[in-house]
Amino acid sequence: MMLELINLTKKYGRYTAVDNVSLKVEDGEILGLLGPNGAGKSTTVSMISTTLSPTGGEIRISGKSLHKHPLEIKKIMGIVPQDIALYEPLSARDNLEFFGCLYGLSGKALGRRVDEVLEIIGLQDKQKQDVSQFSGGMKRRVNIGAALMNSPRLLILDEPTVGIDPQSRNHILETVRRLNRERGMTVIYTSHYMEEVEAVCQRAAIMDHGKLIALGTKDELRESLGVLDTLTVDIQPSGQAKAADIENLPGVRRVALEPDRLVILLSPKEGSPIGILDALKQSGLQPTSFKYEEANLEHIFLQVTGKSLRD
Questions:
Q1: What mean pLDDT comes out for the span 67-87?
Q2: I need a surface site. Which of 71, 213, 293, 307 has the fewest CB within 10 A?
Q3: Could you tell me whether strands 203-208 and 211-216 are parallel, antiparallel, or unpaired per DSSP bridges?
Q4: Nearest one of 156, 45, 151 to 99, comparing CA atoms
Q5: Helix, strand or coil for residue 91?
Q6: What pLDDT shows up at residue 15?
Q7: Is 80 exceeded by the pLDDT of residue 259?
Q8: What is the 3-state secondary structure (H, E, C) of 162-189?
Q9: Going by C-beta distance under 8 Å and a sequence separation of 6 or more, which residues neighbour residue 56?
Q10: Structural domain of residue 214, as residue ranges?
Q11: How much is the pTM?
């Protein structure tokens, strides 16, 4: 077990920012941490990264108490903060060397590690250029590089792609996948971009009002929360259909009936789109085309919080 939160709590006077959160993250897992603004996810990440002290509860990393063994645990953890934390008058290489020295690296070992990290973040050809001349995306890549200098087993990324160009964003996402795939790195990934979490994370933890309200893979969340998929069927305008008849088909929850289109909300656990299409044909309707959309994390998030991610 790489990370375990046990009844983690953070209070500011009467206000509870994080409310008895318990969570386990396995070795080698990428966990997405989601929540609307003010949900408590940044406070949770700050406590894991030791920049805030909990009011109550416990944090264990690799089986050890963070409170009792902070220095030992920091050696295996890398933090990528939401705000860029670099020395911009220095070059990319100088920044990485500086952070490597803070982790106790020196001499040839430091030089080798800087070369390795520059390859990981894809900035070998820009390593001598001052960070002040970099784009926002390149700065964020150096920021990630600084967090990798100690070869961490646990990497925490707090919204690492905010305000950057698509090329850098794709590079960062691929870097996260590569670190996990090739090095078995455990990653905690917070983001305001739902598609990023879907693309890189094996599980998602959803927080709201300081509480952990949902946890699991996308399929587990869909099943446990009863989130519905959407089947849109174009039909010939001459076809006749009654919404009540369609709603009686297995798995169908709701139907919006238009002259040349049906929009069907479907429980995938109980029915299948192919079965519904066959039933429509047998009833005399002639589908001309259809589109089936699985519920994604955005739908799940809206259902459990009643908000969009940026609310």
A1: 94
A2: 71
A3: antiparallel
A4: 151
A5: strand
A6: 96
A7: no
A8: CCCCHHHHHHHHHHHHHHHHHHCCEEEE
A9: 7, 8, 9, 11, 20
A10: 3-222
A11: 0.83
User: Beta 56-61 vs 64-65: how paired, if at all?
Assistant: antiparallel
Closest CA to 219 of 202, 232, 207, 195: 202
Residue written as token pair 């609307």: 36
Report if residue 310 sits inside a domain: no
Tell me whether residue 302 is in a domain.
no
Greatest pairwise CA separation for the chain in angstroms? 79
Residue 36 has pLDDT above 60, yes or no: yes
The answer for residues whose C-beta is within 8 angstroms of residue 214's C-beta and 6 or more apart is 204, 205, 206, 221, 224, 225, 300, 304
Please tell me the total number of residues recorded for the chain in this structure: 311
Q: Do 124 and 273 sit in the same domain of this protein?
A: no
Hey, how many other C-beta atoms are within 10 angstroms of the C-beta on 288?
Answer: 13
Identify the residue with better confidence: 311 or 183: 183
* pLDDT above 80 for 283: no
The residue type at 274:
I
Q: What is the CATH number of the domain that holds 72?
A: 3.40.50.300
